[in-house]
Specification:
The protein has 179 residues and is mainly alpha-helical. It contains 7 helices and no strands.
Amino acid sequence: AHGDFNTVNLTTAGWTNADAAMALSSYGLCLMIGKFLYGFIADHLPMRKASIIYYGCMSVAFASFMCVRFSWWTMPVAIATFVIYTMGGALPTNGLSTFAIDMSPSPEKFGSTVQQYNIMYNVASAIFCWVAGITADITGYYTVAYLMCLVCAVVGFILVQVACGSAARNYKRAHAEEP
């Protein structure tokens, strides 16, 4: 949902439409590369460890997006922010099954884990778009919206750590009881 207001955030801060479009285009290009990197990392690290990279990148990007009105936030900073963001931005779009594998208590429950994660993600996205727009209308800027994104990223990271740890303990316990 946060990607929906990147352009408005830039134009509200005084960027021209052309500059905002160029910065957002760099995001689209980098997201394609980010998905490949995401896949590579997901193949080589357990989700619990990989999430440090993803949520860390998202948090840094959200903190940077909050600073868009400062004079030092120029096109190179915008492009760098979008590049950093794409490492975390790939998470909800193709991280679903990767998370579900590590969070499923058993292979039989993989489908229901994907379903639950998908429902939570889509409901949160639908609600958050409205909340971000309302806070921007009230304050005149998207700083609060990106602060909320930052808080959600930190909470999401904590929840992933707890869920993956719990799933791993349940898996070990279930397999320890087998003859």
